Inverse folding.
């Protein structure tokens, strides 16, 4: 059985209420606190993970900055990555996502609730506008996720090039950067079958602005990638 279908079937009796509540939050997002909306998103994602025969190992939650207004950068392995973040991160987050996902059910409601931004990778001007929007929001104290590869790797635990441009958000916002290492997350929804599967998400030690303030965006990208690679090398089987 397809794992996504299994997640839906096992939660069939919960879907109407949970999804209906999420849709209500999305349509009236300004009326509710960020923490309330995020708590419901986490609840929905936790239901899916439990129903999907997924053993999700998470480390480093304590590394997340206590003060809001930080950015997370991680390698991108597949559709499960956002689910893993939402299940494990205790504080609200927005995300820069590819525009092709804009009208995807469930995701579009989550994007609306978290003030996430769609990025058109083919439109440089639009991408720059998204970067400016994220900078402004981080300065206000919101937290954001960016996948600097720009797309999922499709190479398992092997990473693609990290694009320096995505790190301009952090540099301009002068905020802490939290690297994230996803390991075997591609096995959850990007491989066939529904047998039990293990995946990992590691929140690594934050890089404060003072540590990278004199770096170019490409240098910061290389630093973050090297720390993620070291974590993958240490924790990936085989």
């Amino acid at each position: 059985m397809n794992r996504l279908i299994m997640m839906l079937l096992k939660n069939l009796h919960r879907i109407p209420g949970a999804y209906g509540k999420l849709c209500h939050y999305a349509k009236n997002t300004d009326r509710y606190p960020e923490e309330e909306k995020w708590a419901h998103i986490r609840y929905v994602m936790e239901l899916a993970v439990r129903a999907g025969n997924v053993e999700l190992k998470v480390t480093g939650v304590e590394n997340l900055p206590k003060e809001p207004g930080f950015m997370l950068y991680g390698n991108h392995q597949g559709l499960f990555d956002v689910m893993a973040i939402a299940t494990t991160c205790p504080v609200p987050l927005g995300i820069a996502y590819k525009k092709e996902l804009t009208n995807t059910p469930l995701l579009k409601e989550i994007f609306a609730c978290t003030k996430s931004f769609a990025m058109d990778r083919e439109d440089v001007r639009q991408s720059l506008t998204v970067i400016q929007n994220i900078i402004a929001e981080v300065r206000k104290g919101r937290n954001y996720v960016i996948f600097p590869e720009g797309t999922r790797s499709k190479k398992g635990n092997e990473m693609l090039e990290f694009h320096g441009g995505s790190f301009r958000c952090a540099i301009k916002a002068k905020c802490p950067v939290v690297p994230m290492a996803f390991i075997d997350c591609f096995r959850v929804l990007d491989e066939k079958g529904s047998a039990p599967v293990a995946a990992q998400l590691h929140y690594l030690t934050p890089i404060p602005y003072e540590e990278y303030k004199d770096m170019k965006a490409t240098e910061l990208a290389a630093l973050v990638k090297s720390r993620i690679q070291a974590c993958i090398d240490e924790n990936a089987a085989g």
Summary: The chain is about 45% helix and 15% strand. The longest strand covers residues 177-183. Residues 95 and 145 are 5 Å apart (CA to CA). The chain has a mean pLDDT of 95.
